[in-house]
Design brief:
Shape: globular
Structural class: alpha/beta
Mean pLDDT: 91
Number of helices: 10
Low-confidence stretches: none
Distance between the termini: 27 Å
CATH class of the largest domain: Alpha Beta
Helix content: 25-40%
């Protein structure tokens, strides 16, 4: 097998390679003066299974769209040069938020993304915690391995559970299933009941409203779990609602820390006791004070395990909250 990580995700790729006990395979990326680019492997891939890692978050160096094009073109080059199988390792899969039409003439961006990835010749996809697992599986016609962030956060949640009652909270109705599965995982591990709650959320013309809390959080540690944090507005609203409902403290768990403008204020907000994210997206732009309030859970070992399972033809159920 061959394992590549494009430059924008090289640090995460090196952690995956280390977990596999190997080095990344060599490749070249070149920039042209007019903004175009090319990428090519520097080792033969003929007859090999090739794994390519690239996260699709935007940052100061490149947009998510640019990273997607680079990934597609590199995979195309692997196909042109005889790779027997190509697996895309995409820790943060963009365009998961628009998986259905909610207004007239809406796009279904998740499906369009799937069509692009499939068209270039990808045989399988591995990703961590998408906006909707159902939408992911319906959009793609190739095998998908969805790594559930609940597996990452379980040990930290177990440690918090030793300090009293725990309630898992979804910050919006769309995340109820995610919160339910996380709660069930904790119940199996702890052997006791874990509470479940969710908060009303309405979005119209870019404005978010709603603060109705369904569920009992009084006297508990509220674990607010979500797929990503962008500006942090949803988490701040959820924390305030839980504290108003009598929660002793609120801990936010989000798979992907995108940390767009506004997130700094969320990280410094005292209503949140802690914010925990996977290490899929680097955040060098945050201040030292904000980073001090942030905890990372390593996701690279789970991607390494997914690669091992795919190479050995094993089931990947251990990577989900159902496993």
């Amino acid at each position: 097998m061959r394992l590549f990580a494009l430059n924008a995700s090289r640090e995460f790729g090196e952690r995956v390679a280390a977990a596999l006990g190997r080095a990344l395979d060599a490749h070249e990326e070149r920039e042209f003066e007019d903004g175009e680019h090319k990428a090519r492997p520097l080792v033969s891939v003929r007859g090999e299974a090739a794994y390519v890692l690239q996260s699709l978050h935007g940052d100061a160096q490149a947009s998510g769209d640019d990273k997607l094009v680079r990934l597609l073109f590199f995979i195309g080059a692997l196909r042109d040069h005889g790779a027997a199988r190509v697996v895309a390792l995409i820790p943060y899969l963009a365009y998961g938020r628009k998986e259905r039409q909610t207004k007239p003439f809406d796009p279904v961006s998740t499906r369009y993304l799937a069509q692009l990835i499939e068209a270039i010749g990808v045989d399988a996809l591995v990703t961590l915690e998408t906006h909707s697992v159902t939408a992911l599986q319906n959009a793609f016609r190739i095998p998908t391995v969805h790594i559930d962030a609940a597996v990452l956060f379980a040990e930290r949640a177990q440690a918090l559970a030793a300090e009293g009652p725990i309630v898992v909270v979804s910050p919006d109705p769309g995340g109820i299933k995610r919160a339910q599965l996380f709660g069930e995982l904790l119940q199996r591990r702890l052997g006791r009941t874990i509470g479940l709650a969710f908060i009303e959320k309405r979005r119209s013309a870019g404005k978010v409203s709603g603060s109705l809390l369904a569920g009992e959080v009084a006297g508990s540690t509220a674990l607010v779990i979500d797929d990503l944090v962008s500006t942090g507005g949803t988490l701040r609203r959820a924390a305030a609602t839980c504290l108003d409902g009598g929660a002793q403290r609120v801990v936010a768990l989000a798979a992907h820390g995108l940390f767009a403008p506004g997130a700094e204020q969320m990280l410094l907000d005292p209503s949140l006791a802690a914010v925990v994210v996977a290490d899929t997206v680097p955040a060098p732009h945050l201040s030292e004070a904000a980073r001090a309030r942030l905890a990372y859970e390593p996701a690279a070992p789970l991607f390494a395990r997914a690669v091992q399972c795919l190479e050995q033809g094993l089931a990947t159920t251990e990577l989900t909250a159902l496993g």
